[in-house]
Amino acid sequence: MDNIKSKNKINPKLLIKTKRGLFLNSSGEHSSIFNGDGLDFKEIRQYDSGDDIRHVNWKVTARSGMPSVNIFNEDKQLNIVLVYLNSGSIYFGSNRSKQDTMVETMTILGNTALQKNDILSTLFFAKDQQAFIKPIKKQKIVNSNIDLAYELNPLGNNIDYKKLEFVLMNKIRQKSLIFLIGDFLDIPDFKVLSKKHEVFCVVVRDRLEEDLKLTGEFNFVDTASMDNETIYLDEKTIKKYNNLMIEHDKELFNSFRKSKIKYKKIYTNDDVVKQLQILVKR
Length: 282
Description:
By secondary structure, the chain is α/β, with parallel strands linked by helices. It folds into 2 domains: 12-28 and 76-281, Rossmann fold (3-Layer(aba) Sandwich), CATH 3.40.50.410; 35-73, no CATH class. 35% of the residues lie in helices and 24% in strands. It has helices at residues 12-17, 58-64, 98-115, 140-151, 161-171, 191-196, 207-210, 235-258, 272-281, and strands at 35-36, 40-46, 68-73, 79-85, 119-125, 129-136, 177-182, 198-205, 216-221, 228-233, 262-267. The strands form 3 sheets. The protein has a 6-stranded mixed beta sheet, sandwiched between helices. A 3-stranded antiparallel beta sheet has the order 1-3-2. Helix 3 packs antiparallel against helix 4 (140-151). The longest helix is centred in the C-terminal third of the chain and has 24 residues, at 235-258. It is elongated and about 80 Å long. The chain starts with 11 loop residues before the first helix and ends with a helix. The model is unreliable at 1-21 and 23-39 (pLDDT under 50).
């Protein structure tokens, strides 16, 4: 389908608008998802091999007859990694492009991480690494992310997910929260990645590409190969296409669940902040 590119670009007001808290239960100025030696008491549980003996709760141990330890939430900075998946298909949008929505998503997550004093880095990826902004706490990384997202042309690209996982496993050494932002029109396998890191997938779509209602003759452009083809759409073809999209997403989300990956679909006409709050509260 001919791509309908939005002229809306991220404006400076977005940098103010998106400075709103999302990570309600995670670090920096909040308690992290990792266990540690902080003063924020979490729970008492039975002693396990490797637990710090200094944390043994002797009263509970004496009362229950079972060695028990105090567990705390650790106050620490989180390592936040944003991964922008720069495939050709993100150029599409009926009113607003998926690219614009992805940039807004990345900006919201970046501002939130900095607001919480977390460590932020960003990877731009297609067939291979396109750019990497090293971990930093300064606001300029958010502005750089916006500039890069629009400078790196998505057309002609698809995502090599195997290479992406390899790059992330070798580049991100410390346990991190990794947010992958893309339209996921191919199905990745992040089993290995999700064992080392906590992975969130933000699936950005346009409603028209999931519920096609156009009939007639159209010029379709493959945004990965840039090949053109004229196709006539009738009701039967449209129904088959819409069903294929439904089945694709069933397989995609089942793959995420098997790998214990949190995910959220965000449409180009959604309130991005509200949808991200739903994602991180899960």
